[in-house]
Automatic annotation (TrEMBL):
Transmembrane segments: none annotated. Keywords: DNA-binding, Transcription, Transcription regulation. Pfam families: HTH_20 (PF12840). It comes from Reyranella aquatilis. The keyword Zinc-finger does not apply. Residues 1-95 form the HTH arsR-type domain. Signal peptide: none annotated. InterPro entries: ArsR-like_HTH, HTH_ArsR_DNA-bd_dom, Metal_resp_trans_reg, WH-like_DNA-bd_sf, WH_DNA-bd_sf. CDD domains: HTH_ARSR (cd00090). This is Metalloregulator ArsR/SmtB family transcription factor. The lineage of its organism: Bacteria, Pseudomonadati, Pseudomonadota, Alphaproteobacteria, Hyphomicrobiales.
């Protein structure tokens, strides 16, 4: 993955509404979620939802498929894993790892 592509995808996910949309689609699984159901679930105005979904589609994190009169959105799991892998692959690459964080017990 190229740096510019990763930056664009992370920027798209940096908006709270888009992150909510993406998380809902990731949880929806392979069947995806119709736009109407997504709108109801997140209680977002249709125009706002459309704007944010478009941003996620542009960077490839979301795909849309028309099934009859219904527009269904799907998370692009392959790209999600690629982005997460891109972020994690540099961990300890130079032999310097972050210190372990102590777990607090309440």
């Amino acid at each position: 993955m190229k740096l510019d592509d990763a930056a664009a995808r992370l920027e798209a996910l940096g908006n709270p509404t888009r992150l909510k949309i993406y998380r809902a689609l990731v949880r929806a699984g392979a069947e995806g979620m119709p736009v109407g159901r997504l709108q109801t679930k997140l209680d977002v105005a249709a125009s706002t939802l459309s704007h944010h979904i478009k941003s996620l589609v542009i960077v490839g994190l979301v795909t849309q498929v028309r099934e009859g009169a219904t527009l269904v959105c799907h998370a692009n799991y392959e790209l999600m894993h690629e982005l997460l892998g891109y972020m994690a692959e540099e961990c300890c690459a130079d032999g310097v790892c972050p210190p372990k964080v102590a777990t607090r017990v309440a």
